[in-house]
Structures are given as C-alpha cells and as structure tokens.
C-alpha cells in the first residue's frame, strides 16, 4: 500500500473515533479500544495521528461497533418480499466514505484495476470504493441497452422463480486481463453477482473479489464455493 493510502487510513480512523465519540464516552472508548483516555483525546482532537497498525485496529472496531449497527438502523426490509430498502444508506455520503475505507482495507493487496457494479443502488457504493482504492474506473451493468453504444457484453441474470432477464455492459468497459472487484449493495439471491462474474469471464477479465454492504449468510457461503474468490460483507443477515 502506498504511503498516501496509509495516511488516508489514519485520517479515516480519526474520523471514525469522532463518530463513535457521539455514542460513547471516553471511558467506554478506552475500554473498547484498550487505549488510554489521553491518547484517545489526542487522536480525536487531531493533534496526533495513530500508527497505521493502530488505525486499522480502530477501523475494525468501528466496523463492528458502529457501521454494522448503523446499517441495521438505516436499512428497512419488506417482510413479504425480503427486499432491503437501502436508500437511507446510499444517500449518506459520509457513511459511504467510511464503508469505502473498509472495502479498501479488505482489498488493499489485491491490485484492483476496475470496480464493476449494477445500476442503480450499487453505483454510489461502487463510486466511493473506486475512489478509496486509488481513483479506479468503474463499469456499470444496466438492465437496458444505452443509445450510442454499439457493442455490449450481454449476460443472463436468473431469478429464483425460474425466469431470467439480461444485463448489459458496454464492451469497451471490461478488458482482457483486468483485475475486477464486483460491488453489489445487497446480496440476496446472488443472481447479480453471478451475472457480473459471467460478464468478466466473457471479457477474459479476472474477478479478484466481491464486496457488499449487506448479504444473506447462506447465499454468500454458496457463492464462495462457486466463484472461488473472497466475498466481503459488512453485515450478514
């Protein structure tokens, strides 16, 4: 990881502590982090930056004590369909910024060339992650062909009901040999991830991993066995 990326992680850890300070006292933060209160005070004030190793441990704690709770609070599930409403999450730019940092930590050593997602909920998540990974380009799969584009990668997306539809990606956006991170805001059935994975295979690009905000635990287990790549989710349900 480049030195500038390490500095970004350190600054993100300071921001994370400031956010947690709204919910926890210094005494509680000290107990959670194992750090003395004066040290925490210097981090929160910004007078001192934590080491890279300590920053990562702070962000891991932030993920468990703050991000997962916020994801639960901001997401709403329709009990009948099982579909999550993530609109309050993807409209919160500060939250997306911290989510992107978690993704960047998870895939820091993976040498990602491109981030691939599906419209529409995945776009703001993927854009923040692409920036956090070092200003990487993104490719967006859409449910309809766009005018002005001549060639598409076309893949089927199967549903649990036995029907299917198509996703379309401009052919020039996925190139042979690229190392791709797939981003799906919510992995419910895995159909989107599998379709995007197949698109990468058609383009002869390599899927390095998958990142999601919320995922169904059993579905992730099956996807890992099928795709043979890391799948990182902030919250498993």
Describe the structure in your own words:
Strands 3, 4, 7, 8, 9 and 10 form a six-stranded parallel sheet that branches. This protein has a two-stranded antiparallel ribbon with strand order 1-2. The chain has a two-stranded antiparallel ribbon with strand order 5-6. The radius of gyration is 19 Å and the shape is globular. The chain has nine helices and ten strands. Helix 8 (191-203) links the parallel strand 8 and strand 9 (206-215). It folds into two domains: 3-74, 434 Repressor (Amino-terminal Domain) (Orthogonal Bundle); 84-236, Rossmann fold, CATH 3.40.50.2020. The chain is of the alpha/beta class and 237 residues long. The model has no long low-confidence stretch (mean pLDDT 93). The chain is 47% helix and 21% strand. The two termini are 31 Å apart.
Highlighted features:
alpha/beta, 47% helix, 9 helices, 434 Repressor (Amino-terminal Domain), 237 residues, Rossmann fold, single chain, globular, 2 domains, two-stranded antiparallel sheet, 6-stranded parallel β-sheet
Walk me through the topology:
Layout: H1 3-20, H2 26-33, H3 37-45, H4 52-74, E1 76-77, E2 84-85, H5 87-90, H6 93-106, E3 114-118, H7 122-132, E4 138-141, E5 152-158, E6 164-170, E7 179-183, E8 186-187, H8 191-203, E9 206-215, H9 217-227, E10 231-236
